[in-house]
Write a structure and sequence with these properties.
The chain is built from three helices and no strands. The protein is mostly helical.
Length: 94
Amino acid sequence: MPVFGSLTVLLVVAVVWLSISLIPMRSIAAGRAWGMIVLGVSVFLVLVAGLFASQAEVSDSYRGESPTFLVMLVAAIVLAPGAIVALVRRGKRD
């Protein structure tokens, strides 16, 4: 039974999100709407990740970056390829 690590899960999520953003649409309006949906969901997921990370308890001896910032950064990095593709495809249609 394979055990998936966190990096494998992040890679799978990034590839799936990129694949979702590449779904072809028949009309220009549908493509534009799909791009906005992908961008909106990307931003929403980054904000939700930050909300959950803000609930994390950090020990007093911790001197690194804020856990909220780190989680939002990782979520943005994972979702960025799909969001960039949605922006580029949306720009081609305008």
